[in-house]
Write a structure and sequence with these properties.
The protein has a 4-stranded antiparallel β-sheet with strand order 4-3-6-7, with no helix packed on it. A 3-stranded antiparallel β-sheet has the order 1-2-5, with no helix packed on it. By secondary structure, it is of the alpha+beta class. The longest helix has 21 residues. The radius of gyration is 34 Å and the shape is rod-shaped. The protein has a domain of 93 residues: Macroglobulin (MG2) domain (Immunoglobulin-like), CATH 2.60.40.1930. The chain has 1 helix and 7 strands, in the order H-E-E-E-E-E-E-E.
């Protein structure tokens, strides 16, 4: 008898819930559906960054400078180290612009400015991939940018021999 007293109200409750869900009035639309108008978004052209090294230029002999580029080889904190190695134009080149295009597409930049000295280093973040690209631009006294280094920097290099 106790089961009939509990079962009957439960079935009645389920029946009322089912009927309440089915008797909801239909949504009334105010007329034909309006089509959204698309407004054009102005696009800006971003400079395309190539992952492939390109040709480099030679400075005149009296302006020649050398920059060594290498990776630190540490997987926990990969860095690309750019070291100034001197040259005849050491006192004539006012600035060196340094750029690393990482394999994940991030571009890191740095500068070396006068007074330049042998052994001056700039360290930029790199990746553990072997296709990080390093570019060094020498800025002349006339303001011209001359690309003197453009190459891949291997994460680690092993002696084979």
């Amino acid at each position: 008898m106790n089961i009939r007293l509990i079962l009957a109200p439960a079935i009645l409750l389920l029946l009322l819930l089912a009927v309440a869900g089915c008797t909801e009035p239909a949504a009334i639309l105010p007329g034909p559906a309006a089509t959204p108008t698309l407004t054009p978004v102005p696009t800006t052209t971003l400079p395309v960054v190539s992952a492939t090294p390109g040709p480099t230029e030679n400075l005149p002999d009296v302006w020649e400078v050398e920059v060594q580029v290498q990776s630190n080889g540490l997987s926990i904190n990969p860095q690309i180290i750019m070291t100034f190695r001197g040259g005849k134009g050491m006192n004539l080149v006012p600035e060196l612009d340094l750029e690393v295009i990482r394999s994940d597409g991030v571009v890191e930049t740095g500068k070396m400015t006068q007074p330049l000295y042998v052994g001056e280093t700039v360290t930029l973040p790199g990746t553990t991939q072997n296709n990080d690209r390093a570019i060094v631009w020498a800025i002349t006294a006339q303001g011209d940018r001359v690309k003197i280094v453009d190459k891949y920097v291997p994460f680690r290099s092993y002696n084979t021999g």
